[in-house]
Amino acid sequence: MRIALFDLDHTLLPHDTQTLFCNFVMKREPWRLLLHGLFLPFALLRAVGLCSTATAKRAFNSYLWGMPISRLKKHAHDFAHDCVNSWIYPELRAELLRHRHQGRVVILNTASPSFYARSIAEALEFDHSFATPVILEGRSVPFLPRIDGENNKRQAKIDRMEAALPQLKQRSAADIADSWGFSDSAADIPLLEYCGRRILVHPSRALIAHFKADPKAVILQPKRPYSTKLGDMLHACLQVIGLHPEKGPN
Q: Could you tell me if 38 and 143 are in contact, meaning their C-beta atoms sit under 8 angstroms apart?
């Protein structure tokens, strides 16, 4: 089983999809900006280390509180097809198509919430997708939607993937050598080491350092709409309040 594993945020596209999705929703329901006030205490606690990443991720979705599940699913579908599909790096779109045509199983493996990650995987025609599983019960989104298990990050990405696709554990040496991993973050070192070929997309310094001696690790730096970390943060701030362009240049 030859595979191509893709991270999502800052790998397939230049932005964090959590803030991009927030931007998408704010443009349709701007009154929800008021609900960000519910997230502020969690953000402050996270900043001083008194709140876990998983809890902060749950709290960030407070702007969705009370939204009918049916409307959330519609937003997720439209976001994936009309927004994300316009932001994906052309170089990464080409890589995705190349691996699909060469017969590899293409897999999206992201820490993003499952309620829109599945729609993104469908829009981009991935064979399988894995994300942080957010539990949405009842007719509307709860204040702090629960996560089923761990945040889908680091080793959890591999564990969740192998639990759903046990045949991955039977890969031959040739399969592993001809499997490809794509990511920007040192948190994805387990995902990248799961593959024989590694593509580092605008990699962090820690990721570059880890694979410095790996001759099969390639750095890819597609054009992005900012040049610094501060620029990325500015885009994210505009997205959170719904003042960012909805669609990308592609």
A: yes
The least confident of 4-8, 147-151, 192-196 is 147-151
Count CB-CB contacts under 10 A for residue 16. Answer: 17
Token digits of residue 66: 């009370």
Cα-Cα-Cα-Cα dihedral sign, residues 82, 148, 153, 58:
positive
**Torsion (CA) 26, 21, 56, 48 in degrees, nearest 10:** -80
User: Could you tell me the pTM of the whole model?
Assistant: 0.94
Average pLDDT, stretch 194-221? 94
Residues 73-98: tens digit of each pLDDT: 999 999 999 999 999 999 999 999 99
Domains of the chain (ranges; CATH) run 3-15+68-224 (3.40.50.1000)
- How far from chain centre, in Å, is Cα 137? 23
Residue 139 token pair: 């007719």
Q: Rounded to 5 degrees, what angle do the CA atoms 170, 172, 187 make? A: 75
Q: How far apart are the first and last CA of the chain?
A: 32
